[in-house]
Input
Amino acid sequence: MIQNLVKRRKVSVFLWLLVLTAVGSVISAVDQNLVWYLLLGDVGVIAWRLATIQSRINPIPEASVDPQDPGTPPAYQPPPSPRPRSTFRPLRVDPVGSSLSAQGALDELDRMVGLAAVKRELNKIMASAQVEQRRRASGLSVSPVSRHMVFTGPPGVGKTVVARTLGAIYRDLGVLPRGHVIETDRSGLVAEYIGQTAQKTKDRINEAMGGILFIDEAYTLAAGRAVQGDFGQEAIDTLLKAMEDYRERLVVIVAGYPAQIGQFLSSNPGLASRFPKTIPFPAYTADELLEILKRMLKKEQLRFVGDQARMDSMILNWLTSRSRDPGFGNAREVRTLVERIREAQAVRLANDPSGDLQAVTDSDIQEALEI
Output
């Protein structure tokens, strides 16, 4: 290819010289100086053409840096071409609780005090889901099942823990793709102005899609039906449609006190039929709450010292009295009591630098119970 180029360039230069000779002969008769100017210019053109041919035949190598001679100029590096934009999507961060395995969730539930009836119901749900999984694996038909349910009971009896356990079980058995739990209440569903409640409720539904939407104190959605400007019914209507349209990808659990939940379910003709299962959560007994207290203290690396029977009696009397309050928080109340015991211990140890950091005395208990 280069040899052909050279041949073409040589012919071009030769023809150019013939033209110059002919033109020079004509002009020489007119002005001798003008001939010399033209010839000098044409010599420059010819030299440029020859240099171009030479550079194509023997290109000048790029300079390189000699490691023994730092003064050597570096080789020319062309600017890098722009890198293509990555097509990878950002990693998704799942909500808290979605990484809990079904076995781990069941182990956590087994360690909880009481809840015998709840655990039996959960075993039924798990057995049903396992059989459905086996039928699918065998190519047998599986009828669509509504898994929405109602948890009834006072606060602090483990309803949220059981919801998370269900999510983990459903995910591991392939019933739900994610199995996470989104907790909300009236404030997370109902807006202040017309037209905003439906969208706010849809946003919570979208967050829970593939898992469980857990609505605590759900009866408050219907509590303001007689009040003008209350949009709880709009949230209920939006929920009903989503529960039917996405029942293979969404489980809705409503929770609250038994009497109020009953009023909630009767507030809409199609509401009760959407929740085929109700799991009652009974309040803890005083003895169960005392056992929960001891487990919490053990987890905090604290222990009773002194007259154990006297301490147990003080705590049981306090729990029995407090449980008569309609707003008693069960395990939540016990958690608060543990915090108050730690505060009382800290005040005592502040004046006793050599005191046992794990010991809980009867004076700490009395201070926490305000006896």
